[in-house]
Amino acid sequence: MNKKLVSMFLVSLLVVAVAGCSTPGEQTPDEQVFINIASGGTAGTYFPLAGGMADIWNKNIEGVNATAQSTGASVANINLLRDDEADVIMVQNDIAYYSATGTEMFDGDAYEDLRGLCILYPETIQIVTLEGKGIETVADLEGKRVAVGAAGSGTEANARQILEAVGLTYDDITVQYLSFAEAASNLKDGNVDAAFLTAGHPTAAVQDIGAQNDVKLVTVEDDMADALIAKYPFYTKLTIPGGTYTGIDEDIKTVAVQAMLAVSADLDEELAYNMLKTMYDNQERMKVAHTTAGAKIKPETGLDGMGIELHPGADKYFNE
User: Fold this and answer.
1) Which of 1, 2, 246, 256 is spaced 20 to 30 A from 120 at the CA atom?
2) pLDDT digit string, tens, across residues 291-317
3) Distance (Å, whole) CA 144 – CA 154
């Protein structure tokens, strides 16, 4: 066989191979569809849940080849989706809202094709302090040293918005830009008076503080929560049950943002519908992936705090 015939043969093989695959935006029968799920760090909650979803979709949607990818979580995942390097992302609903509206860390750079697939489970806003600090309400944070999360993070935006709800700004507190671990350490050492943490409860950082200190959680009252939700639709009300943390026996009212799934507007409608349907039809598999968070993934709460436009496939599923 001469070189010209060999070249023509190889080109024909390539065409056949490409014809047997498609992207999630253009699914057709008998084609293999690759779905990359952008999650978070391997030690976090997002990654095992994404693995559970991939397993469900691979076993229950014909032609789908789904994989979970470890990433830098919410903000990184938005950028991966936008750059066509991910097909489904796990993201906090407030970060999704900022991206869709071009605000906060996405100021002036709105992602207009971002669509919501479903809400998964709550990420609780926890305002942590210690007994003896004189902090009973959010307003009592005035004049205090407060850890508000890493600069530019979702937690930091939550802190700013909650302070705003009681008429406070960063000018009224001594701001400390600290991560979860740093905030916990500084609370125990007496270097800060309170800290904002955004994470599913119970949170290991709060349990660590309470192991050797009389930890307290500050209540976000209903009227304050209502004002927050009216301005920022991604918040929801939440109660942390008494006994969740050592020494806190009473229920604590607060607010939460939500972990959610988001996709691009061009994702195939039938595929999006089937992804939701099979995930919710296999809830036990999600519990295996992560006992606590997986148990909270239910269709009844699938739209709670959905602050961005729904994908048509999701709209079809929830309307049923």
Assistant:
1) 246
2) 989 999 999 999 999 999 999 999 999
3) 21
